[in-house]
Amino acid sequence: MPSQIVSLVVNGERREFIAAPGATLLACLRESLGLIAAKRGCAQGACGTCTVLVEGRPEASCLVPVETVAGASVRTLEGVTAGGELDEVQSAFIDCFATQCGFCTSGMIMVAEALLERNPDPSEDDVIEAVSGNVCRCTGYRPIVIAIMEAARRRRERAVPR
Amino acid sequence: MTYRLAPIDTGAFAAERDDTGLTVVGSVVQRSDARGHVTGRTEFFEDVAPPRLAHLKMHRSARHHARIAGVDVTAALAVPGVLRVLTHADVPNNVYTVLKLIGVEPDDEPVLAVDKVRYLGEPVCAVIAETEAAALDGAAAVEVSYEDLPHVLDVEEALEEGAPLVNEYQGQNHFVYEGHHCRRIRFGDVEAAFARADHVFEWRYQSSPIEQAPVETTGCVVVPQADGRLRIHSDTQACFFTLDNTALILGTPFNRLRIVGGTVGGGFGGKVDVVVEPIACVAAMAVDRPVKFVYDRAEEMQVSSPRAAERIVIKDAVMDDGRVTGRKVTLYVDAGAYARHSPYGTTKAAAHLPGPYSIPNVWADCHCVFTNRTPSSAMRGFGVTIADFALESQMDRIARALGMDPLRLRLINAYRDGDVKAHRKIAEGTALVEVIQKAAELAGHDLPEDCRRMSSTTREGL
Q1: CATH code that applies to domain B183-210+306-413
Q2: B8 pLDDT exceeds 60?
Q3: Range list for CATH 3.90.1170.50 in chain B
Q4: Looking at residues A74-90, what average pLDDT do you find?
Q5: Can you tell me whether residue B346 is helix, strand or coil?
Q6: What's the CATH number of domain A86-159, 3.40.50.20, 1.10.150.120, 1.10.10.10, 3.30.1640.10?
Q7: Best of B28, B32, B37, B44 to disrupt the A interface by mutation (most A CBs within 10 Å)?
Q8: Fold of B47-149+217-304
Q9: What are phi and psi of B395, to 5 degrees?
């Protein structure tokens, strides 16, 4: 099977690249597009550190053959920082000490973005459910949950017209 | 939900900060690396993508213990994209031990197997290829023929007469400490203590190997530079330790290597051994291209060195009032097939005995044992953690047997300032009594008055 040209809308920009058959979305993001925020931790969909949003849904990009999402809109952590400004989730992760080694952080933030998009006022159980597919081996889950709750609060406050 | 943003209780230090001019303790300081982490800009080793990057994958032993009758790399070399297949003959100083930097001998582990494999998953051949997929196909195509040898997977069986010899470089199935078969403690007379005791309690404890399981697997990218040096991007926890050991294996001056590291996607002790950098350097020199060698998840779980399994037998002489008057410990650390950091870990275990208690008679034999299992090594307090599990389980069981509050049992035996420990050191700065009192208070556990009056600096209540 020959390689093919695949087109995606990545962080709002149309990008085209050549993908070998079976190439994963993660490999294409990292190797073809130079977007290295999403990490490879297990390459079998078990750790969550490769999580990106495909059409707004969190997906383990290490398991997604890129040709199956051709034309889709993909959002990575690089897109969250667009313009150099940190958003509420990023700044809450800093303020709540929700990062340790940093290797799971990209995936954690992306599932948080998807959660808050869909549910601006999540319960703690909702947050735990949302991050349940993501492993933090430094075991800093508590500050991560606190940071996402704090991010939700900040985003709701910002949304209230003054 | 109630929570606070800062993990530090700033209020508690307010008074201290007023007139001292000191401002750091009690104030919230942002982590210097946090902004990189939340923006995805922190550079981990695998984020480095030099042009013409080649990939290395390992062909690993399919046996616990076997003589290598032959290695055939013909089929591997025929895989499209395979550039080279390395064997032990390609590694300048193939046999090493990581702690030789602090004088530990002998060199006991090959970078690539020579005539024998000593554990399942031991590296035999390194395949370098244009792509990761080709390297994997090449590694799978290497053919090794084995003559099986009897294996031993249990520490006590390994020490029995007639057990199969695991490691010829060591010469016997245990590490030798200054001419002795194990790390020993001899203090007082435990047998006399057992004879005089109201009770003798003996129990046995066993732990399993524990994998550190960092989310980022072990790996490196080695880039040959124009000046002939090698630049090593690594997730090692020990940059200079890795640089020095790698240079010794390559037989090059230390200044031929440069390590770029310090960013570790979880280590927990699992990234202290020097297992990927030396062969990746040999590979980069062999093909004169950048080479990446990174463990996949299965390798990380199977062959990266875990916390050692330990077996610990504790026999205590105990009086009716709870005083422990003698403690005899036999401890086995399963080093696996090679020494790595286990001789040191076993010494740490011995140094930790008999726990934070003043026991007048102590006898300990701590064995560092070689078996045909994955080499074990460092992990968070290795040598100490499992010993504590055994020691504190023992204290709880004694308390239960005597019908005594387990905290009182510990308070009676806790070391005080001025006590002579089994290692002939005078205890100073002890605080176990106060820690137990505070913990009891926080847990709402009522300690009787005599226990609350005890102190680490007096003999009160003893």
Answers
A1: 3.30.365.10
A2: no
A3: 47-149+217-304
A4: 93
A5: helix
A6: 1.10.150.120
A7: B37
A8: Aldehyde Oxidoreductase; domain 3 (3.90.1170)
A9: -60, -45
Best mutation target among A36, A51, A77, A139 (most B Cβ atoms within 10 Å) is: A36
Residues A7-32: what's their mean pLDDT?
Answer: 97
For the domain spanning A4-80, the CATH number is 3.10.20.30
Tell me which chain B residue has its CA closest to the CA of residue A125.
Answer: B1
Tokens of B151: 């294996």
Which one of A40, A137, A149 has the shortest CB-CB distance to B214? A137
Q: How does residue B13 score in pLDDT terms, banded at 50, 70 and 90?
A: low
Give pLDDT, residue B461. 85
Residue B214 CA to residue A154 CA, distance in Å, equals 32
What are the pLDDT digits (tens) for B82-108? 999 999 999 999 999 999 999 999 999
Q: B45: distance to nearest CA of chain A, Å?
A: 11
Q: Residue B3: name the closest of A120, A85, A127 by CA.
A: A127
On the question of pLDDT at B232 being above 90, the answer is yes
What's the gap in Å between the CA of B130 and the closest CA on chain A? 14
Which residues belong to CATH 3.30.365.10 in chain B?
Answer: 183-210+306-413
- Write the ipTM: 0.97
Confidence band, pLDDT 50/70/90 cuts, at residue B20: low
pLDDT category of residue B2 using cuts at 50, 70 and 90:
very low
For residue B308, count other CB atoms closer than 10 A to its CB: 32
Our CA-based measurement puts residue B253 at a distance from the nearest CA of chain A, in whole angstroms, of 32
- Show Cβ contacts of residue B368 under 8 Å, excluding neighbours closer than 6 positions: B174, B175, B177, B182, B183, B333, B335, B339, B342, B343, B345, B346
B223 Cα distance to chain centroid:
29
Q: Which amino acid, B282?
A: V
Contact A135, B215 (CB under 8 A): yes
Question: A 39-58 residues with CB below 8 A of B?
Answer: 39-44, 46-47, 49
Nearest CA in chain B to A149: B1
Residues B141-160 pLDDT 10s: 999 999 999 999 999 999 99
